[in-house]
Amino acid sequence: MRFIQSFVPPKQKSTSTGVIPALRGLTWLQWAQFLSGWIAWTYDALDFFSVALTVNLLSKQFNQQVSAITTAITLTLLFRSLGAVIFGVLSDRFGRKWPLVCNLLLCSSLSLGTSFVTTFPQFLAVRSLFGVAMGGVWGLASSTALENLPVELRGLGSGIVQQGYALGYLIAAIINLTVVPYSSHSWRCLFWTASSVSFTTAIVRACIPESAVFLRAKAIEREKGSNTTQKTKIFLRETKEMLKTHWKLCIYAVLLMAGFNFMSHGSQDLYPTYLESSKGFSSHSATIATIIGNCGAISGGAIAGYTSQYIGRRLTIVICVLLVGSFIPLWIIPTSFAGLAAGAFCVQFGVQGAWGVIPIQLAEMSPPAFRATFPGVAYQLGNMISAASAQIEATGAKHIRETVIVDGKPTSVADYATVQGIFIGVVAAFVIVVTILGPENHSSHFEQHKTAFEEGGGRDDAMLEGEEGEESVGGSGHSIREVEGKKSGV
Questions:
Q1: Which of 49, 56, 65, 147 is the most exposed place for a label (fewest CB within 10 A)?
Q2: Which residues pair with 401 in a beta bridge?
Q3: Closest by Cα among 373, 370, 369, 374 to 448
Q4: What is the DSSP string of 215-270?
Q5: What domain of life does the native source organism fall in (predicted)?
Q6: Which of 280, 313, 247, 283 is nearest to 404 (CA)?
Q7: Distances in Å between the alpha carbon of 159 and those of 145, 162, 307?
Q8: pLDDT score of 5
Q9: What is the pTM of this model?
Q10: Phi, psi angles (nearest 5°) of residue 11
Q11: Which of 116, 151, 64 is nearest to 391 (CA)?
Q12: Please, are residues 42 and 171 in contact by the beta-carbon 8 Å criterion?
């Protein structure tokens, strides 16, 4: 009983009676900021999975083995940490809006560049640079989306934002199914689509105002007469204070995200290749199974994010990961399309259900003034540790073989099923243990904290002064009129 009670979230003061009243109370600006963060992450994922879906086509294009093509996935994951540091720091120092706009424009440029490469070294170089750009998007997108929502909606919002990742995969799979096979430009169509949509998202974000938290903070600093140099010095000092105080939390968050990224990349990156190579499916059938799996992911993320608001973040994660483990046999044993597609749906429901809690779990766990840098860097360092997931599975499958009947003849093929089953099982156990041992700060009002460029922002108890306004932005306790008034000098 004591073990179960350790998962129960503490009671928090609420300004709303539930999700429906909170949804009804959202302003158009809150909707716009949330959707801009969600769309940014969705189409960033579209570009990333464009490589995973076309591994065999890229292998033929560049005359390379599958394990060599997966090097591009590894390099993208490795360089995402650098992007998380660069754009996370810029966001916590200067605000959410313009760093995210620049980040998306860079993603668009590099995605377009990918479509025009002609050699394998060029392909690897561009995907490495794309990793830097992609690394900045998640921290900025999730903080933009969640910090402007009322506390009551952050669990649901977390699940929806994170499943932009699965939705991006789903859209890429649909394009790969309906456009790529019939186009003379083949796999390049995917990257053209990703580039154009990332560019459009950047324009949309540029038209939406900055987060209210940063408008308030900038207005206060302007009243104090603080200049850019002074605010930068304060930011550096508060960052140092945060790292000195929370270095253990930083290590824990990286370990947690390493486990989560091993689980997601291990179950997704080579899934189409697994169906084609081990199960003998056509590329068309493998893509349809991928689409079904991502439908499970999207539904799992939204449901788990919503549920976490009531039963707690860690307990929801543990339940979802246990579902993953229980459905691994259905994911790898069947030989029929229906059985494997059902397994994909159930496994991805669990994997992305657990992931749906992560944006808000990391935001609430983070030092409040560093809600872009801390979650983003932890996420991407975890990605860096798990970067070799696809290569580990591809290499393992080269050494673990199985015999199947192809055209009436016994044929030795790579046993991706066994490799992925073992891999995901071990990782799921690791994630459960790390989650149980970690902290939870359920329904934290982090938007009431000072920003990183304000004096004392690096301390956990550095809260804003003032009482709640009537038109609260993200539950910050400061009304839209109050923020705009400060901005205009009223």
A1: 65
A2: 414
A3: 369
A4: HHHHHHHHHHT--HHHHHHHHHHHHHHHHHHHHHHHHHHHHHHHHHHHHHHHHHTT
A5: Eukaryota
A6: 280
A7: 11, 5, 10
A8: 44
A9: 0.76
A10: -70, 135
A11: 64
A12: yes
Distance CA 186, CA 105 (A): 24
Kindly state the DSSP code that residue 187 receives in the 8-state scheme.
T
DSSP 409: E
Distances (CA, A) of 471 to 159, 217, 489: 25, 18, 19
46, 168 Cβ separation under 8 angstroms: yes
Q: Can you list the domains of the chain with their CATH numbers?
A: 28-212+247-437 (1.20.1250.20)
Residue 356, amino acid? G
* Cα 357 from Cα 457, distance rounded (Å): 26
Residue 306, token pair as written in the block: 């919503």
Identify the pLDDT of residue 404: 62
**What does each C-alpha distance from 300 to 158, 355, 432 come to in angstroms?**
12, 9, 17
Q: Give the gyration radius of the chain's Cα atoms.
A: 23
Token readout for 9 is 């979230």
* Segments of the chain scoring below 50 in pLDDT: 1-16, 466-490
pLDDT for the residue numbered 473? 41
Per-residue confidence (pLDDT) for residue 242, from 0 to 100? 81
Smallest CA-to-CA distance from 316 within 349, 293, 291, 363 is with: 349
